[in-house]
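Input chain follows. Return C-alpha coordinates only.
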Amino acid sequence: MRALILAAALTMAGLASAAHAAEPREFSVMAFNIWYGGVQVDFNAVANTIRTVNPDVVAVQEPEGNLRRLAEAAGYAFVDDSLHLMSRFPIFPSEQDGLRFGYIALDPLHVAVVAGLHLTSSPYGPEAVRDGSSVDEVLSLERETRLPEVEPYATALGAVAAKGVPTFLLGDFNTPSHQDWTEAAVAAGQVEYAVDWPVTRALANAGFADSYRAMHPDSVAVPGKTWTAGTPPPRIRPIETLDRIDMIWSGGPATAIASSLVGETGGPDVDVGVDPWPSDHRAVISRFSLTPAPAPTLVAVDRQVVVQGERIVARYIAPGSDETRQIAILPGAGGKPQAVMSLPIIDGSDHRAGTFGTATLEPGSYRAAVIDRAGVVEAEVPFWIIGRDASPAIDAPETVAAGTPIHVTWTNAPANRLDWIGVYPAGMADLYGYVGFLYTGARSTGEMDINAESLGAELEPGDYDIRLMLDDGYSVLASTPVKIVASPTE
Protein backbone atom coordinates (compact mmCIF):
# COMPACT_ATOMS: atom_id res chain seq x y z
CA MET A 1 0.00 0.00 0.00
CA ARG A 2 2.81 2.42 0.87
CA ALA A 3 4.42 2.18 -2.55
CA LEU A 4 1.05 2.72 -4.24
CA ILE A 5 0.29 5.81 -2.17
CA LEU A 6 3.74 7.28 -2.71
CA ALA A 7 3.52 6.72 -6.45
CA ALA A 8 0.12 8.40 -6.48
CA ALA A 9 1.42 11.40 -4.56
CA LEU A 10 4.54 11.85 -6.63
CA THR A 11 2.75 11.61 -10.00
CA MET A 12 0.30 14.39 -9.24
CA ALA A 13 2.20 16.78 -11.47
CA GLY A 14 1.41 14.51 -14.40
CA LEU A 15 -2.22 14.36 -13.38
CA ALA A 16 -2.31 18.13 -13.19
CA SER A 17 -1.41 18.49 -16.85
CA ALA A 18 -4.13 16.05 -17.86
CA ALA A 19 -6.92 17.28 -15.61
CA HIS A 20 -8.89 20.47 -15.64
CA ALA A 21 -7.14 22.92 -13.34
CA ALA A 22 -9.01 23.76 -10.15
CA GLU A 23 -9.91 27.33 -9.32
CA PRO A 24 -8.05 29.03 -6.44
CA ARG A 25 -9.97 29.01 -3.19
CA GLU A 26 -9.57 29.85 0.48
CA PHE A 27 -8.80 27.17 3.04
CA SER A 28 -8.27 27.42 6.79
CA VAL A 29 -6.48 25.10 9.19
CA MET A 30 -6.05 25.10 12.96
CA ALA A 31 -3.43 23.57 15.26
CA PHE A 32 -4.87 22.97 18.73
CA ASN A 33 -3.29 21.10 21.63
CA ILE A 34 -6.38 20.58 23.79
CA TRP A 35 -4.48 19.54 26.97
CA TYR A 36 -4.80 15.92 28.09
CA GLY A 37 -8.04 14.97 26.39
CA GLY A 38 -9.61 18.43 26.63
CA VAL A 39 -11.07 17.68 30.06
CA GLN A 40 -8.67 19.64 32.26
CA VAL A 41 -10.90 22.75 32.34
CA ASP A 42 -14.11 22.28 30.34
CA PHE A 43 -14.51 19.97 27.38
CA ASN A 44 -17.41 22.03 26.03
CA ALA A 45 -15.13 25.07 26.00
CA VAL A 46 -12.75 23.19 23.70
CA ALA A 47 -15.60 22.54 21.27
CA ASN A 48 -16.78 26.14 21.63
CA THR A 49 -13.30 27.39 20.75
CA ILE A 50 -13.30 25.43 17.52
CA ARG A 51 -16.84 26.51 16.64
CA THR A 52 -15.86 30.14 17.27
CA VAL A 53 -13.07 30.21 14.68
CA ASN A 54 -14.68 27.58 12.38
CA PRO A 55 -11.63 26.23 10.49
CA ASP A 56 -11.91 23.80 7.61
CA VAL A 57 -9.48 21.32 9.20
CA VAL A 58 -8.28 20.95 12.79
CA ALA A 59 -5.13 19.04 13.75
CA VAL A 60 -5.71 18.06 17.37
CA GLN A 61 -2.92 17.21 19.78
CA GLU A 62 -3.54 15.28 23.02
CA PRO A 63 -7.09 14.11 22.17
CA GLU A 64 -6.51 10.96 24.28
CA GLY A 65 -9.34 9.04 22.63
CA ASN A 66 -11.78 11.98 22.67
CA LEU A 67 -11.43 13.05 19.04
CA ARG A 68 -14.82 11.77 17.85
CA ARG A 69 -16.56 13.19 20.88
CA LEU A 70 -14.94 16.56 20.10
CA ALA A 71 -15.84 16.41 16.42
CA GLU A 72 -19.47 15.73 17.25
CA ALA A 73 -19.57 18.58 19.77
CA ALA A 74 -17.89 21.00 17.36
CA GLY A 75 -19.96 19.94 14.34
CA TYR A 76 -17.36 18.23 12.12
CA ALA A 77 -18.56 15.47 9.82
CA PHE A 78 -15.22 13.86 9.02
CA VAL A 79 -12.81 12.45 11.59
CA ASP A 80 -9.73 10.27 11.38
CA ASP A 81 -8.49 8.85 14.69
CA SER A 82 -5.34 7.52 13.04
CA LEU A 83 -4.37 11.06 11.96
CA HIS A 84 -5.87 13.15 14.78
CA LEU A 85 -7.66 15.25 12.17
CA MET A 86 -11.19 16.71 12.06
CA SER A 87 -12.45 18.20 8.82
CA ARG A 88 -15.41 19.72 7.02
CA PHE A 89 -14.22 17.82 3.95
CA PRO A 90 -13.61 14.09 3.47
CA ILE A 91 -10.29 12.82 4.84
CA PHE A 92 -8.37 10.10 2.99
CA PRO A 93 -5.59 8.68 5.20
CA SER A 94 -2.28 7.73 3.66
CA GLU A 95 0.88 6.19 5.00
CA GLN A 96 4.39 6.30 3.59
CA ASP A 97 7.13 4.38 5.41
CA GLY A 98 5.43 4.96 8.75
CA LEU A 99 4.56 8.61 8.04
CA ARG A 100 0.85 9.23 8.33
CA PHE A 101 -0.88 12.14 6.60
CA GLY A 102 -4.23 12.88 5.01
CA TYR A 103 -5.54 13.95 1.63
CA ILE A 104 -8.37 16.44 2.15
CA ALA A 105 -10.90 16.29 -0.70
CA LEU A 106 -11.85 19.93 -1.26
CA ASP A 107 -14.17 18.85 -4.07
CA PRO A 108 -14.85 15.46 -5.71
CA LEU A 109 -11.65 15.53 -7.77
CA HIS A 110 -9.20 17.89 -6.02
CA VAL A 111 -7.19 17.66 -2.82
CA ALA A 112 -4.75 19.23 -0.40
CA VAL A 113 -2.46 17.31 1.97
CA VAL A 114 -2.47 17.82 5.75
CA ALA A 115 -0.20 16.24 8.38
CA GLY A 116 -0.75 16.90 12.07
CA LEU A 117 2.40 16.58 14.18
CA HIS A 118 3.14 16.40 17.89
CA LEU A 119 6.86 16.15 18.47
CA THR A 120 8.57 14.91 21.62
CA SER A 121 8.17 17.33 24.50
CA SER A 122 11.09 16.35 26.73
CA PRO A 123 13.90 17.19 27.07
CA TYR A 124 12.81 20.67 26.06
CA GLY A 125 15.25 23.09 24.42
CA PRO A 126 14.15 26.38 26.03
CA GLU A 127 14.42 24.75 29.46
CA ALA A 128 17.97 23.68 28.62
CA VAL A 129 18.71 27.33 27.78
CA ARG A 130 17.09 28.40 31.05
CA ASP A 131 19.22 25.94 32.97
CA GLY A 132 22.50 27.18 31.51
CA SER A 133 23.20 24.98 28.49
CA SER A 134 25.34 26.42 25.73
CA VAL A 135 24.01 26.93 22.22
CA ASP A 136 26.01 23.92 21.03
CA GLU A 137 24.49 21.76 23.77
CA VAL A 138 20.99 22.94 22.87
CA LEU A 139 21.53 22.24 19.17
CA SER A 140 22.84 18.78 19.99
CA LEU A 141 19.74 18.12 22.10
CA GLU A 142 17.43 19.14 19.26
CA ARG A 143 19.30 17.07 16.68
CA GLU A 144 19.00 13.99 18.88
CA THR A 145 15.30 14.35 19.74
CA ARG A 146 12.93 16.33 17.53
CA LEU A 147 14.93 16.70 14.31
CA PRO A 148 14.79 12.94 13.49
CA GLU A 149 11.02 13.07 13.97
CA VAL A 150 10.40 15.94 11.57
CA GLU A 151 13.01 15.26 8.87
CA PRO A 152 11.08 12.39 7.22
CA TYR A 153 7.99 14.60 6.95
CA ALA A 154 10.01 17.53 5.62
CA THR A 155 11.59 15.33 2.95
CA ALA A 156 8.57 13.29 1.85
CA LEU A 157 5.93 16.01 2.02
CA GLY A 158 8.34 18.60 0.70
CA ALA A 159 8.56 16.44 -2.43
CA VAL A 160 4.76 16.26 -2.60
CA ALA A 161 4.47 20.05 -2.29
CA ALA A 162 7.11 20.49 -4.99
CA LYS A 163 4.84 18.54 -7.37
CA GLY A 164 2.13 21.19 -7.06
CA VAL A 165 0.09 19.86 -4.14
CA PRO A 166 -0.90 22.36 -1.41
CA THR A 167 0.65 20.74 1.67
CA PHE A 168 0.39 21.61 5.37
CA LEU A 169 2.34 20.46 8.42
CA LEU A 170 0.86 21.75 11.63
CA GLY A 171 0.71 21.04 15.31
CA ASP A 172 2.67 21.25 18.53
CA PHE A 173 6.34 21.09 17.50
CA ASN A 174 7.70 21.49 21.05
CA THR A 175 10.49 23.64 19.67
CA PRO A 176 10.87 27.38 19.05
CA SER A 177 11.56 28.87 15.63
CA HIS A 178 14.82 30.07 14.16
CA GLN A 179 12.80 33.08 12.98
CA ASP A 180 12.10 34.05 16.61
CA TRP A 181 15.42 33.44 18.39
CA THR A 182 17.29 36.08 16.44
CA GLU A 183 19.97 38.67 17.26
CA ALA A 184 17.19 41.27 17.27
CA ALA A 185 15.35 39.24 19.94
CA VAL A 186 18.59 39.04 21.94
CA ALA A 187 18.99 42.82 21.74
CA ALA A 188 15.39 43.25 22.90
CA GLY A 189 16.03 41.00 25.90
CA GLN A 190 13.53 38.40 24.73
CA VAL A 191 15.97 35.47 24.44
CA GLU A 192 19.39 34.78 25.93
CA TYR A 193 21.13 34.02 22.65
CA ALA A 194 20.27 33.40 19.00
CA VAL A 195 19.51 29.79 18.02
CA ASP A 196 19.09 28.35 14.54
CA TRP A 197 16.54 25.80 15.77
CA PRO A 198 17.00 22.65 13.65
CA VAL A 199 13.34 21.57 13.32
CA THR A 200 12.06 24.81 11.86
CA ARG A 201 15.19 25.25 9.78
CA ALA A 202 14.61 21.78 8.26
CA LEU A 203 11.06 22.72 7.33
CA ALA A 204 12.16 26.00 5.79
CA ASN A 205 14.92 24.25 3.84
CA ALA A 206 12.33 21.79 2.51
CA GLY A 207 10.35 24.69 1.04
CA PHE A 208 7.72 25.18 3.76
CA ALA A 209 6.67 28.61 5.07
CA ASP A 210 5.60 29.43 8.63
CA SER A 211 2.21 31.07 8.13
CA TYR A 212 2.14 32.99 11.42
CA ARG A 213 5.58 34.50 10.89
CA ALA A 214 4.71 35.24 7.25
CA MET A 215 1.80 37.35 8.46
CA HIS A 216 3.69 38.78 11.47
CA PRO A 217 7.29 39.08 10.26
CA ASP A 218 8.55 41.16 13.22
CA SER A 219 9.05 38.55 15.93
CA VAL A 220 10.18 41.17 18.42
CA ALA A 221 7.01 43.24 18.04
CA VAL A 222 4.69 40.19 17.75
CA PRO A 223 6.24 37.16 19.48
CA GLY A 224 2.99 35.18 19.18
CA LYS A 225 3.78 32.85 22.05
CA THR A 226 1.58 29.77 22.25
CA TRP A 227 3.21 28.14 25.27
CA THR A 228 1.89 28.66 27.77
CA ALA A 229 -1.39 30.41 28.31
CA GLY A 230 -1.29 29.02 31.84
CA THR A 231 -2.16 25.78 33.54
CA PRO A 232 -4.90 27.01 33.36
CA PRO A 233 -4.78 30.78 32.81
CA PRO A 234 -3.62 32.85 34.58
CA ARG A 235 -1.50 30.31 36.52
CA ILE A 236 2.04 30.21 35.15
CA ARG A 237 4.75 28.41 37.09
CA PRO A 238 7.62 30.63 38.31
CA ILE A 239 10.31 28.74 36.35
CA GLU A 240 8.21 28.36 33.19
CA THR A 241 9.65 29.14 29.76
CA LEU A 242 7.33 30.90 27.30
CA ASP A 243 7.62 30.49 23.55
CA ARG A 244 5.92 29.95 20.18
CA ILE A 245 5.90 26.20 19.61
CA ASP A 246 2.49 25.62 17.92
CA MET A 247 2.80 26.36 14.20
CA ILE A 248 1.26 25.92 10.77
CA TRP A 249 3.67 25.38 7.86
CA SER A 250 2.60 25.36 4.21
CA GLY A 251 4.15 24.29 0.92
CA GLY A 252 3.13 24.06 -2.71
CA PRO A 253 0.49 26.38 -4.23
CA ALA A 254 -0.72 27.80 -0.90
CA THR A 255 -0.17 31.38 0.29
CA ALA A 256 -1.04 32.54 3.79
CA ILE A 257 -3.46 35.45 3.84
CA ALA A 258 -4.17 35.54 7.60
CA SER A 259 -2.86 33.91 10.78
CA SER A 260 -4.13 34.43 14.31
CA LEU A 261 -3.65 33.26 17.86
CA VAL A 262 -6.69 31.92 19.70
CA GLY A 263 -6.48 31.97 23.47
CA GLU A 264 -7.53 33.56 26.71
CA THR A 265 -9.17 36.97 26.35
CA GLY A 266 -6.58 39.68 26.83
CA GLY A 267 -3.62 37.32 26.48
CA PRO A 268 -0.47 38.60 24.74
CA ASP A 269 -0.93 38.71 20.95
CA VAL A 270 -4.25 36.85 21.26
CA ASP A 271 -6.49 37.82 18.33
CA VAL A 272 -9.52 35.68 19.23
CA GLY A 273 -10.35 35.48 22.92
CA VAL A 274 -12.38 32.63 24.40
CA ASP A 275 -13.52 32.30 28.01
CA PRO A 276 -12.94 30.09 29.79
CA TRP A 277 -9.78 29.20 27.93
CA PRO A 278 -9.60 25.40 28.16
CA SER A 279 -5.99 24.56 27.29
CA ASP A 280 -2.44 25.12 28.45
CA HIS A 281 -1.54 26.00 24.83
CA ARG A 282 -2.89 28.82 22.72
CA ALA A 283 -4.09 27.64 19.32
CA VAL A 284 -3.11 28.89 15.87
CA ILE A 285 -5.47 29.32 12.92
CA SER A 286 -4.27 30.31 9.45
CA ARG A 287 -6.18 31.06 6.27
CA PHE A 288 -4.70 30.41 2.84
CA SER A 289 -5.35 31.05 -0.80
CA LEU A 290 -4.57 27.80 -2.55
CA THR A 291 -5.02 25.93 -5.79
CA PRO A 292 -6.10 22.34 -5.07
CA ALA A 293 -4.29 19.51 -6.83
CA PRO A 294 -5.95 16.79 -8.93
CA ALA A 295 -6.67 13.77 -6.77
CA PRO A 296 -5.18 10.33 -7.27
CA THR A 297 -7.42 7.32 -6.66
CA LEU A 298 -8.20 7.32 -2.93
CA VAL A 299 -10.31 5.42 -0.44
CA ALA A 300 -11.21 5.93 3.22
CA VAL A 301 -13.47 4.37 5.84
CA ASP A 302 -15.55 6.26 8.35
CA ARG A 303 -14.01 4.29 11.25
CA GLN A 304 -10.85 2.25 11.62
CA VAL A 305 -12.51 -0.19 14.06
CA VAL A 306 -16.02 -1.55 13.53
CA VAL A 307 -18.04 -3.76 15.86
CA GLN A 308 -19.30 -6.85 14.02
CA GLY A 309 -22.83 -6.16 12.77
CA GLU A 310 -22.34 -2.41 12.36
CA ARG A 311 -22.21 -0.78 8.95
CA ILE A 312 -19.08 0.78 7.54
CA VAL A 313 -18.94 3.54 4.92
CA ALA A 314 -16.14 3.37 2.36
CA ARG A 315 -15.65 6.71 0.64
CA TYR A 316 -13.63 6.97 -2.55
CA ILE A 317 -12.25 9.21 -5.26
CA ALA A 318 -11.82 7.44 -8.60
CA PRO A 319 -10.76 9.89 -11.33
CA GLY A 320 -11.24 8.90 -14.95
CA SER A 321 -13.43 6.09 -16.22
CA ASP A 322 -15.27 4.29 -13.42
CA GLU A 323 -17.18 1.65 -15.34
CA THR A 324 -14.66 -1.12 -14.73
CA ARG A 325 -13.90 -0.29 -11.09
CA GLN A 326 -15.35 -1.53 -7.83
CA ILE A 327 -15.26 -0.43 -4.23
CA ALA A 328 -14.52 -3.65 -2.37
CA ILE A 329 -13.87 -5.16 1.04
CA LEU A 330 -10.76 -7.36 0.93
CA PRO A 331 -9.16 -9.59 3.56
CA GLY A 332 -6.40 -7.87 5.47
CA ALA A 333 -3.74 -10.47 4.70
CA GLY A 334 -1.52 -10.37 1.62
CA GLY A 335 -1.75 -12.50 -1.50
CA LYS A 336 -4.02 -12.02 -4.51
CA PRO A 337 -6.93 -9.83 -3.41
CA GLN A 338 -10.26 -11.61 -3.39
CA ALA A 339 -13.20 -9.35 -2.61
CA VAL A 340 -15.52 -10.57 0.13
CA MET A 341 -17.97 -7.77 -0.75
CA SER A 342 -18.01 -5.26 -3.59
CA LEU A 343 -20.08 -2.57 -5.29
CA PRO A 344 -19.57 -1.21 -8.82
CA ILE A 345 -18.40 2.38 -9.19
CA ILE A 346 -20.76 3.34 -11.97
CA ASP A 347 -20.27 7.09 -11.80
CA GLY A 348 -17.70 8.42 -9.35
CA SER A 349 -19.04 11.96 -9.69
CA ASP A 350 -22.46 10.82 -8.45
CA HIS A 351 -21.77 7.78 -6.25
CA ARG A 352 -18.98 8.80 -3.88
CA ALA A 353 -19.31 6.21 -1.10
CA GLY A 354 -20.41 2.64 -0.54
CA THR A 355 -22.01 1.28 2.62
CA PHE A 356 -21.32 -2.30 3.69
CA GLY A 357 -22.84 -4.42 6.43
CA THR A 358 -20.45 -6.48 8.56
CA ALA A 359 -22.78 -9.01 10.23
CA THR A 360 -21.51 -11.88 8.04
CA LEU A 361 -17.81 -10.96 8.30
CA GLU A 362 -15.63 -12.64 10.89
CA PRO A 363 -13.67 -10.44 13.30
CA GLY A 364 -10.24 -9.63 11.94
CA SER A 365 -8.34 -7.28 9.68
CA TYR A 366 -9.72 -6.05 6.35
CA ARG A 367 -9.05 -3.50 3.64
CA ALA A 368 -11.41 -1.18 1.85
CA ALA A 369 -10.12 -0.84 -1.70
CA VAL A 370 -10.75 0.51 -5.15
CA ILE A 371 -10.00 -2.34 -7.58
CA ASP A 372 -10.14 -2.63 -11.34
CA ARG A 373 -11.76 -5.40 -13.40
CA ALA A 374 -8.65 -7.59 -13.10
CA GLY A 375 -8.63 -7.22 -9.32
CA VAL A 376 -5.65 -4.87 -9.25
CA VAL A 377 -5.76 -2.65 -6.16
CA GLU A 378 -5.58 1.04 -7.07
CA ALA A 379 -5.99 2.35 -3.51
CA GLU A 380 -6.63 0.74 -0.14
CA VAL A 381 -6.95 1.50 3.55
CA PRO A 382 -6.97 -0.93 6.49
CA PHE A 383 -9.75 -1.39 9.04
CA TRP A 384 -10.66 -3.97 11.65
CA ILE A 385 -13.83 -5.76 12.68
CA ILE A 386 -14.03 -6.75 16.34
CA GLY A 387 -16.51 -9.04 18.10
CA ARG A 388 -19.61 -7.58 19.72
CA ASP A 389 -18.33 -8.24 23.24
CA ALA A 390 -14.63 -7.88 22.46
CA SER A 391 -12.30 -5.97 24.76
CA PRO A 392 -8.75 -4.82 24.11
CA ALA A 393 -6.22 -7.53 24.96
CA ILE A 394 -2.45 -7.86 25.02
CA ASP A 395 -0.27 -10.96 25.26
CA ALA A 396 3.41 -11.79 25.75
CA PRO A 397 5.44 -14.78 26.95
CA GLU A 398 5.31 -15.39 30.70
CA THR A 399 9.10 -15.62 30.93
CA VAL A 400 11.80 -14.09 28.72
CA ALA A 401 15.56 -14.34 29.06
CA ALA A 402 17.36 -11.05 29.62
CA GLY A 403 18.57 -9.65 26.32
CA THR A 404 15.91 -11.53 24.37
CA PRO A 405 13.17 -9.55 22.58
CA ILE A 406 9.72 -9.69 24.16
CA HIS A 407 7.25 -10.62 21.42
CA VAL A 408 4.03 -8.73 22.13
CA THR A 409 0.68 -9.15 20.37
CA TRP A 410 -2.48 -7.13 20.86
CA THR A 411 -6.08 -7.25 19.63
CA ASN A 412 -9.18 -5.06 19.68
CA ALA A 413 -7.30 -1.80 20.28
CA PRO A 414 -9.13 1.37 19.15
CA ALA A 415 -6.48 2.18 16.46
CA ASN A 416 -5.94 5.76 17.53
CA ARG A 417 -2.89 7.46 16.13
CA LEU A 418 -0.86 7.26 19.36
CA ASP A 419 -2.10 4.16 21.14
CA TRP A 420 1.01 2.73 22.80
CA ILE A 421 2.59 -0.23 24.56
CA GLY A 422 4.16 0.64 27.91
CA VAL A 423 6.62 -1.46 29.93
CA TYR A 424 6.06 -0.98 33.67
CA PRO A 425 7.55 -2.51 36.81
CA ALA A 426 5.05 -5.12 38.00
CA GLY A 427 2.21 -3.59 39.98
CA MET A 428 3.31 -0.02 39.30
CA ALA A 429 0.43 2.26 40.28
CA ASP A 430 2.06 5.43 38.98
CA LEU A 431 1.00 5.52 35.33
CA TYR A 432 3.90 7.88 34.59
CA GLY A 433 6.26 5.19 35.91
CA TYR A 434 6.90 3.28 32.68
CA VAL A 435 10.47 2.25 31.85
CA GLY A 436 9.91 2.39 28.10
CA PHE A 437 7.23 2.53 25.42
CA LEU A 438 6.44 1.97 21.75
CA TYR A 439 3.51 3.17 19.62
CA THR A 440 1.21 0.61 18.00
CA GLY A 441 1.18 2.35 14.60
CA ALA A 442 -2.58 3.00 14.79
CA ARG A 443 -3.31 -0.74 14.40
CA SER A 444 -6.20 -2.44 16.15
CA THR A 445 -4.45 -5.81 15.92
CA GLY A 446 -0.71 -6.21 15.67
CA GLU A 447 2.55 -7.50 17.01
CA MET A 448 6.02 -6.16 17.78
CA ASP A 449 9.27 -7.09 19.45
CA ILE A 450 10.28 -5.05 22.47
CA ASN A 451 14.05 -5.00 22.87
CA ALA A 452 16.88 -2.83 24.12
CA GLU A 453 17.15 -1.01 20.80
CA SER A 454 13.46 -0.08 20.68
CA LEU A 455 13.30 0.89 24.37
CA GLY A 456 16.67 2.61 24.49
CA ALA A 457 17.90 0.44 27.37
CA GLU A 458 18.14 -3.21 28.40
CA LEU A 459 15.47 -4.47 30.80
CA GLU A 460 16.96 -5.74 34.04
CA PRO A 461 15.83 -9.14 35.39
CA GLY A 462 12.59 -8.77 37.31
CA ASP A 463 8.81 -8.69 37.00
CA TYR A 464 7.09 -6.33 34.58
CA ASP A 465 3.65 -5.48 33.25
CA ILE A 466 3.24 -4.89 29.51
CA ARG A 467 0.29 -2.51 29.15
CA LEU A 468 -1.76 -1.43 26.17
CA MET A 469 -2.41 2.30 26.63
CA LEU A 470 -4.84 4.76 25.04
CA ASP A 471 -3.79 7.43 22.53
CA ASP A 472 -0.75 9.06 24.15
CA GLY A 473 -2.64 9.20 27.44
CA TYR A 474 -2.56 7.08 30.56
CA SER A 475 -5.71 5.00 30.37
CA VAL A 476 -4.82 1.30 30.65
CA LEU A 477 -6.74 -0.77 28.09
CA ALA A 478 -5.15 -4.15 28.87
CA SER A 479 -2.13 -5.62 30.65
CA THR A 480 -0.09 -8.84 30.76
CA PRO A 481 2.78 -9.87 33.08
CA VAL A 482 6.29 -10.74 31.92
CA LYS A 483 9.19 -12.04 33.99
CA ILE A 484 12.71 -11.23 32.77
CA VAL A 485 15.24 -13.79 34.00
CA ALA A 486 19.01 -13.89 33.77
CA SER A 487 18.85 -17.19 31.84
CA PRO A 488 16.08 -19.27 30.25
CA THR A 489 16.22 -21.79 33.12
CA GLU A 490 16.39 -19.40 36.02
